[in-house]
Design brief:
This protein folds into 3 domains: 6-125, no CATH class; 144-203; 207-472, Purple Acid Phosphatase, chain A, domain 2, CATH 3.60.21.10. Helix content is 44%, strand content 15%. The chain contains 15 helices and 14 strands. The protein has helices at residues 15-19, 25-46, 54-79, 88-112, 125-163, 172-175, 178-181, 183-206, 244-256, 273-280, 306-316, 345-348, 358-361, 378-391, 412-418; strands spanning 47-48, 51-52, 210-218, 229-233, 261-265, 292-295, 320-321, 325-331, 334-340, 371-374, 397-400, 424-428, 433-437, 456-464. The strands form 3 sheets. Strands 3-14-4-5-6-7 form a 6-stranded mixed sheet, with helices on one face. A 6-stranded mixed sheet has the order 8-9-10-11-13-12, covered by helices on one side. The longest helix has 39 residues, at 125-163. It is globular, with a radius of gyration of 26 Å. Mean pLDDT is 86; it is low at 1-27 and 48-52. It comes from Panagrolaimus sp. PS1159. This is Calcineurin-like phosphoesterase domain-containing protein.
Length: 473
């Protein structure tokens, strides 16, 4: 990763810089960048087309207020660790160090969200550090909450055993261990886990993305398309911690696969075109024999007008964007259909001209030809299956992303429990549709993933059941 020093942005002919010592220049430069970029970002949040953006103001304030409530607990829990050392002399120094650590962790966590609204240098180390702090913070809070719940359950069981089932007294030592009764030990354990898992997850995202090879057997796929390859990538999330170099690396890996087509399935960006558009430019160099295609994700709707992103992707990146649209490929008179839908996020929010429309997306796809559908969210994939059932139609393959495979250890169990199609390959038996949900090539928020293989690019090879030698493919 290339780190651009904040001092590099100082104006060389500035009189102030000439008079100041070299040691002072980086500080003055940083303050200058912070002042101008921060104010510009705040204006971007507050004002849209000359009017106050109440929705965005409320969103940011609500997020920060909710986080502040949690941060109060985090602060008191962290400084309570000073009680571990009983010697008064050391206790003062430990407490002071813990206060500084807690304040830095909390400040960086609160500030990390603001980076999405700021114009940043191409590779900005401070943003990465703040998001890593957010990763530690998030793990710490969740583990602390889980340990608290376990302590509550243990306390209830102890009460029941002591009062109502005296014969079960032998179980009490197991329920009354220090980890279940000591808040200090719980805090220390949660903090260690938070730091360790964030560090491990950060290393996982620094490793080159994994290329997964997936063979999909398609019923009645014309032999002309037997061996047809698709490079499938989702969730690039170009933004504060994903810069141009990372995007260029992804492009190179995909091009080395030499695919027939490339599909970019949503969440390419996190921010404003004027701030991060240049970071996406390497995607223009994607190469495929029969085209590069994309659909929108929910993050394309968070900051900029989605229509502006569509224009940017098509004009600047040479991507063909499917907004409830599709394309039919033809070889020797045989056909294969690729269709893409607007994001499921539009189902719960009002965006003029944007809504999932399965009927419109497959209008050029004959019921008799194999069909592949792109839908960013797995919930969108589920909706497509319902829509197709009502239409008396089916799809052979649906490609989705969005879930990041859980991304964090503390999020993974929730995702598995709540999302029907969470990560990997699924078969919808009623329609015989194969659904692949990618964990994405990057991450959102903390630059952390549970393990390196969750940063994936998928090369899909379509196989025909009409071919006799599939085992050799």
């Amino acid at each position: 990763m290339v780190v651009i020093k904040v001092g590099d942005f100082a104006t060389s002919d500035s009189p102030e810089n000439i008079r100041r010592s070299p040691a002072e220049k980086p500080i003055r430069s940083f303050l200058s960048i912070f002042r101008h970029r921060f104010l510009k970002g705040i204006i971007k949040i507050l004002i849209v087309q000359g009017q106050l953006n109440y929705e965005k103001v409320f969103e940011v304030l609500f997020y920060e207020c909710m986080l502040a409530i949690v941060s109060t607990c985090v602060y008191h829990r962290i400084i309570s660790l000073s009680e571990i050392n009983k010697r008064e002399t050391w206790k003062i120094y430990i407490r002071a160090a813990l206060i500084i650590f807690a304040l830095i962790l909390i400040f960086m966590t609160h500030f990390s969200y603001i980076f999405y609204y700021l114009p940043l240098p191409p590779e900005f180390l401070l943003a990465e550090i703040c998001f890593l702090a957010f990763g530690i913070y998030l793990h710490f809070v969740v583990f602390l909450f889980l340990l608290f719940l376990i302590e509550c359950v243990a306390s209830i069981l102890i009460y029941i055993f002591q009062k109502w089932i005296p014969s079960m007294h032998f179980t009490l030592p197991y329920l009354n261990t220090p980890l279940l009764s000591s808040k200090t030990l719980q805090t220390l354990m949660a903090l260690i886990l938070g730091i360790a898992l964030t560090a491990q997850g950060y290393i996982a995202t620094r490793i080159e993305p994994t290329v997964k090879h997936l063979n999909l057997l398609i019923q009645d796929l014309p032999l002309e398309f037997h061996g047809f390859t698709i490079a499938f990538v989702s969730d690039i999330h170009t933004g504060p911690t994903v810069g141009k170099a990372k995007v260029a690396q992804i492009v190179q890996i995909i091009n080395d696969l030499n695919p027939d087509i490339i599909t970019v399935v949503g969440d390419l960006s996190d921010g404003y075109i004027s701030y991060i558009g240049d970071r996406l430019k390497p995607l223009k160099n994607l190469k495929a024999k029969h085209g590069k295609f994309g659909v929108l994700g929910n993050h394309e709707y968070f900051y900029e007008n989605a229509d502006d992103w569509i224009k940017f992707y098509e004009k600047e990146l040479n991507l063909t964007m499917f907004i409830n649209d599709g394309k039919v490929f033809e070889r020797n008179g045989k056909k294969l259909c690729l269709a893409g839908l607007d994001d499921y996020y539009t189902e719960g929010a009002r965006f003029i001209g944007h809504k999932m429309n399965t009927t419109k997306a497959i209008k050029n796809c004959s019921p008799k030809i194999p069909t592949i559908i792109l839908a960013h969210q797995p919930k969108g994939a589920a909706k497509v299956l319902k829509d197709l059932s009502k239409l008396g139609r089916r799809a052979d393959v649906i490609l989705s992303g969005h879930t990041h495979g859980g991304q964090l250890v503390v999020v993974y169990p929730i995702g598995v429990a709540l999302v029907d199609y969470f990560f990997g390959l699924y078969l919808h038996r009623e329609s015989n549709t194969q659904i692949y949900v990618s964990s994405g090539v990057n991450y959102w928020g903390p630059p952390v993933k549970m393990w390196p293989t969750l940063c994936e690019i998928v090369k899909i090879k379509l196989l025909s059941n009409l071919k006799n030698d599939n085992k050799n493919i």
